[in-house]
Amino acid sequence: MIWNEPKECMHREEMAHLQGKRLRATVEKVYQNVPFYRKKMQELGLEPGDIRTIQDIQFLPFTTKQDLRDNYPYGLMAVPSSELVRLHASSGTTGKPTVVGYTRKDIEMFAENVARSICCTGGGKDDVVQVAYGYGLFTGGLGLHYGAEKIGAAVVPISGGNTAKQLTLLQDFGSTILACTPSYAMHLAEVLEEKKIDPRSLCLRIGIFGAEPWSTEMKDKIERGLGIKAYDIYGLSEIMGPGVSCGCEEEKGLHVAEDHFYPEIVDPDTLKPMKYGETGELVFTHLTKEAMPLLRYRTRDLTSLENSACDCGRTNVRMNRVKGRSDDMLIIRGVNVFPSQVESVLLNIPETKPHYLLVVERRGTMDTLEIKVEIDENYLSDEINQMNVLRNRICHEVESVLGISVKLTIVEPKTLERTEGKAKRVLDLRKEEEK
Amino acid sequence: MIAKQLTVFLQNEPGRLEELTRVLEQEKINISALSIAETEEYGIVRMIVSHPEQAEEKLKEEHFSVKTTQVIGVEVPDEPGTLHHILKLWAEKGINVEYMYGYSNCGAARLIMKVSDPEKATEILASENLWSTVGWNAKDCIM
Known about the structure:
The complex is a heterodimer of chains A (435) and B (143).
Chain A: H1 5-8, H2 12-33, H3 35-43, H4 65-70, E1 84-89, E2 99-103, H5 104-120, E3 128-131, H6 139-150, E4 154-156, H7 163-172, E5 177-180, H8 182-194, E6 206-210, H9 216-226, E7 229-236, E8 241-247, E9 254-256, E10 261-266, E11 280-286, E12 297-303, E13 305-306, E14 318-319, E15 324-325, E16 330-332, E17 335-337, H10 339-347, E18 352-363, E19 366-375, H11 384-402, E20 407-411, E21 426-428, H12 429-434
Helix pairs in contact in A: 2-3, 5-6, 8-9, 10-11
Chain B: E1 2-11, H1 16-26, E2 31-38, E3 42-49, H2 52-61, E4 65-77, H3 82-92, E5 97-105, E6 108-115, H4 118-127
Antiparallel strand pairs in B: 1-3, 1-4, 2-3, 4-6, 5-6
């Protein structure tokens, strides 16, 4: 079912008109209330009146994570603190946390968009939604919670972690939808297998996973392991939280709630807008946010946009799965390496598990990449020879995809850290040396 | 005699082997032969124990990566040329030896060997009367 048909299936021209109207209001608002934006616009010789249609967005200044840090904690708020009803903070994966504020209307808008997302995946009021995202400063838990309540589903607010209890509730409460990070879903699938619980004995049918990039191979593995259909939900706290976009049953990308968040793809180096279908950095502009509206916020996520029609009936722009974050991109001996590339290779090798850690070091002037991999226990051998053959084969496959030589290390199964939140896949010791 | 060998895959770091022997100690399981093949990152522990099924189950519970392998346990006279004689017979029949470990004492040599075809290898030994059934009293490890 489509939660908000008038907005999600709006005629393209009508949508552009609505976006233009909302952009004008947002620009006026930040110009009047946020000194940071007034100054930036004045530097560019821009006044609010210069922005007339949604196309004029290209003249507006960009906002970066650093701008949020520089204005920490309340510098970018466009409303007095009496209007705020909630504060969230980003997980601070790469540095100091950044804070975001919400008015009552913003919280309603958040719930509305998560409601759209859950319906997009085929969920509805008859579902039991087990929210295994962390509750707290992270937007995942509360975000899914409010959205699921809004559609009238039953929420199980278990939060992240405590795997044994997660399984008990999946079994006893008959949860039909699981919401968590893909790496935690993978962990749950492994534990099911370990405990010899048949996924078909559960009522689970849908997985709504997000907060970290994951490969299609990982998706297949989770779907088989949990006996569900897995959907990608996208979001970031700076923009709202989960529900900025979400995949539908057609699996042709994630529908963006573009009546609230205007998406653009820009070249990360030149910042020039890119066309539909071209891969670049995803940028969002708030169209309705009250507490902390951001203009052209650079997400660092690399993807592309599609505007072709989707068979599900929704007309809004879709974004493809996030290929990786420009923050996660490692430059090793001049070659760009994404952890997601390694993940794809490992998932295509039956002997390996999708648990891995990339360790980057600098030896003299040379960067080295070590990949620690866990092997499926069933393929462990008592012969060193066989293990070396296996290691060399994995190494060869990884190298052929990455285009650089790597040191591949097989580690004891279940020794790489399992996380309940975002998985840690990279240990860049070069950065630590610089500190 | 074909025996069940436990193979445990361990991270090559201080204390990991101790954690393994602690589990066996708690279960009162005796180790009758042991060898470790090590690499820079991990070690492969191969051992013959008094109660292999119980040991495997318990170690798995404790999150060790364990599997069982068929190996041959033999006791032969502790004399020059005995091993050569065995290997010659096997080589002629195309049996490959992957690895072996053992020791000799008091006139007898005891060896654990992983070969490409354990059934055929033991038949050859038996037909040559090279086989001694004494010495391996750990009945549970007989398959």
